[in-house]
Amino acid sequence: MMIIDVRDGAEFETRHIRGSHHVPLHPLKELTEEFAAQMASRVVLVCQSGRRAEEARKNLDAAGLTGARVLTGGVASYAAAGGDIVTGRFAILVPCIAVYVAVRALVG
What angle do CA 26, 28, 33 make, to 5 degrees? Predict the structure, then answer.
């Protein structure tokens, strides 16, 4: 089984399922047929909540990879259930970056 995390880079670096492969949704959308041809038949797609993973599943399904599944509840549910999670160097920086971006948007 292959676990594909379709979140963006900062989300993946902050927290992801051990052993998962990072393939952001945007590149996956552009190269769906190539990815579908190379992926194992047992693929689990994951994101934060399931919305992006479901979008990726539909794209892969249309390209012929009909066995892909979505992890219900995403990374947060997996972690809450005691799953093996890797936390990265951005775990502390992401909230700081989000505050910075919000402040910059307010002050122009």
Answer: 140
pTM for the full model?
A: 0.76
Find out whether 46 and 75 touch, Cβ atoms under 8 Å.
yes
Query: How far is 25 from 56, CA to CA, in rounded Å?
Result: 7
pLDDT digits (tens), the chain, 108 positions: 889 999 998 899 889 999 998 988 888 877 777 777 777 668 899 999 899 999 999 988 888 888 889 999 999 999 999 999 998 765 444 444 444 444 455 554
Rounded-to-integer distance, Cα 45 and Cα 17, Å: 11
Spell out the residues 6+ positions from residue 92 whose beta carbon is closer than 8 angstroms to its own: none
